[in-house]
Amino acid sequence: MTISTPTNPRKTAWAWVVGTFFGSGLLKPGPGTYGSVLAVLIWRLLAFFLDLTRPQLALLTLVLAILATVIGIPAATRVARESGSKDPQMVVIDEAAGQWVALLFAAPIWKHYVLALVLFRLFDILKPPPVRQLEHLPEGTGIMADDLMAGVYAVICFVLIAHFAFPNF
């Protein structure tokens, strides 16, 4: 199924829904932040409604990150091709995947998920090595890989900060 618009006659519907992470990537300014916030909201709602233990929540979070990556790579590739941009700002499924990596060891309490959100956005924006270099991988792989690495940096920092800042982490 494709969506037809006057500016782009062919859009693959599933890829645009996934790539823009349900349209959050179309919001301005800062579509990446909207994608990250939506990922946190989905994570928090799942934690609340499913009433999971911390290990169960960590496993669910890992599954979300893996699914977003596996589906996100082809979606990001297709949206990039159809939009004519190497790394279109509207593609934010990569932010969702990276954000879920950053949340791997978080508890569903606001201090944890806000810290994970801030750390992920910081590393996603600053792009320390090798985050920036991973952008050079081809198509959807490069679009996704840099945010996954930013998520890895964020989760490492989160664990270190949480260990010292939050009693009974």
Describe it.
By secondary structure, the protein is mainly α. Helix content is 68%, strand content 2%. Strands 1-2 form a two-stranded antiparallel sheet. The longest helix has 30 residues, at 54-83.
List the helices and strands and how they pair.
Layout: E1 2-3, E2 11-12, H1 13-19, H2 31-50, H3 54-83, H4 93-102, H5 110-126, H6 131-134, H7 139-165
Antiparallel strand pairs: 1-2
Summarize the model shown:
It comes from Terriglobus albidus. With 169 residues, the chain is mainly alpha-helical.
Show unreliable segments: 1-6
How many domains? The number is: 1
Characterize the largest beta sheet: strand count, sense, and whether it forms a barrel.
2 strands, antiparallel
The gyration radius over C-alpha positions equals 16 Å
- The percentage helix is 55-70%
Strand order of the largest sheet: 1-2
- Taking the alpha carbons of the first and last residues, their distance comes to 47 Å
Q: Which geometry do the CA atoms define? A: globular
Kindly estimate the percentage of residues that lie in beta strands according to DSSP.
Answer: under 5%
Structural class: mainly alpha
Count the strands?
A: 2
Pfam family, one: PgpA
Organism: Terriglobus albidus
Transmembrane segments: 57-80, 100-123, 144-166
InterPro entries: PgpA (IPR026037), PgpA-like_sf (IPR036681), YutG/PgpA (IPR007686)
